[in-house]
Amino acid sequence: MAGMLYLIITTQRTVTKLWNPYDILGIDESATEQQIKRHYKKLGLKFHPDKIRPDPAKNETIESLNDKWVDLSKAYQALTDEEIRNNWIQYGHPDGKQGFSIGIALPKFIVSDGNGKYVVLVYALLLGVLLPYLVGSWWYGTQKLTKDGVLVESANSLFREYTEITDEGDLITALSTGKEFSSILKGDKAESGLSKIESRISDKGQVTPYAGGLSEKDKDKLEHMESGVRRKVLALLWAYLGRVELDDPALTSAKYLVAPIAQSLCRTATAIALAYGNTVPLLASYAISQRFVQAIPPKASPLFQLPYFTPAVVKAVEGDSKNHMSVQQFMELPDARRRKLAIGKDLLNEQQYQTVVDVATQLPHFQVAKAFFKVTGEKHIIPGSLVSFVVKGRFVPPGSTNIPAINDLDLEDVDPAEDDLDAMLGRKKTIKDASGKVVTEEHKPVSPPITFAPYYARDQAPKWHVFLSDSKQERMAVPPFTFTTFDKPIYTPDGKPTYNVQTLKAQFAAPPQAGHYTFVMHLVCDSYVGFDTKQDITLSVEDASKAAQMDAEDDISEPEEDSLAGQMSALKGGAVTKRKPLAKDDSDDESGTEEDESDTSATNTDTEDES
């Protein structure tokens, strides 16, 4: 490396010099033809081969002197001979267009006699063996993976395990079939320590029947599973979810490594559930994603997301309640009440409690303020139209105080102007300012902060999924739309919530028949437990002819204030419009006959109306 740097520094760059007859003759470019001829005669007396003799001290030879005289002659002719001068002007050389060649530096042994067959052999191996092998390995490697980056064999196993009533425990068991786990449990690691893991997760738990958080059904599945990689993976998954201490460095490392793999497999389970359109397994896949990120077993308290919250602390806070307390509910309690429940012997100390409060008030809890349907540029939704489902809300961390009221203008979804291409494509956002004026502003996506997940061995960016379902049939009506960025800042630079109203928008085709359709909106965060929103929402689809009639009625202008209808509308408290001034005629000598005809026409119309 040092030698290469030395060569780079010391080697001088070779610069190609352009052929210039003036430089060769040593005269100024402003010289006239007479001056050039006189100067050439002087050079002939000095450099003509018959006049000069080689000087050994200067390493001169007959050939070098002849070449120099040839250059002088070409330079002279280029400036005096018309044909040679044209060659120089057009091609840059008196002899006309010159050949161009590029040299490639090759090692001597490649071009040496007798080595040609070896060079051909090397090229044959590279092009005929190595290149096809690399391309084939890449191709078949990509064929083994799904678009989610999961082995096709693992996806097939999850497909075989799928049922319409798959719950969270069933899904955890199904995830253990993934072939990706074999990479971290090779050889003797496949079964070593299995009995110890099963013993620890089967111990009695403080807030769950077993320490690992598994149910009787899940425990029975584990015990009846054949020994091997899958059984150990399933035991490690329950040990991770239950935060069970294994007191073994190798087992502890494996416990934290299986969670990210299971999380990636969970995305494939979500895709399978989406293909079938069943709500129960879809929600189970989202719930398990949350549980793996936060290391919380199914049906366990969301309070485990808070730091220092052990089973003893959770039990002290929730007491004997059959329903778990969410982080939001815990933070809504008065501070004195929270301290009384969480601080004490074998519970939290003052410093730990303050850390809990600091973390809770930074969690991105999305509160829905308004959800509605609309069609851009239209007043009514008709069958088959492109419907926009708009969700307005803001991030309100648990325990937030002094929350500002929502401005009603922020809850409106303003249609972009038809000629504003940037707004139509989403590069700009159309809003109303404080005065109610429609304005556009640059749209810069804002990403939420990385998920607070101290047990998860990867950085996790939270995502929010919004979809509509039919609660009666437990089927998905509108597939999920995933949101990873938002249109306004969520936190200030110093970490305080902004309470900005965010807009989530999804588009789908309206039902083919008119009517009122009641859906259940699910807004699910894949990284936090208990931060989901579920509410009923109705889509009203009007018949196309009825919608057109309603639009026509809306377009009828209000009666003028000086008309009979306007006066009656004013007496009833209705709206009227002021009469527009008549336009001044261009000619003052308009015939009275036309005025009479106009008056008569108006009278006849009124009469006909009265009759």
Automatic annotation (TrEMBL):
It comes from the Eukaryota. GO terms for molecular function: protein transmembrane transporter activity; RNA binding. GO terms for biological process: post-translational protein targeting to endoplasmic reticulum membrane; SRP-dependent cotranslational protein targeting to membrane. It is a multi-pass membrane protein. Residues 551-563, 586-599 have a biased composition (Acidic residues). GO terms for cellular component: Sec62/Sec63 complex. Pfam families: DnaJ, Sec63. The keyword Nucleotide-binding does not apply. Its main location: endoplasmic reticulum. Gene3D superfamilies: 5' to 3' exonuclease, C-terminal subdomain, C2 domain, DnaJ domain, Sec63 N-terminal domain-like domain. Residues 20-92 form the J domain. Residues 549-611 are annotated as: Disordered. This is J domain-containing protein.
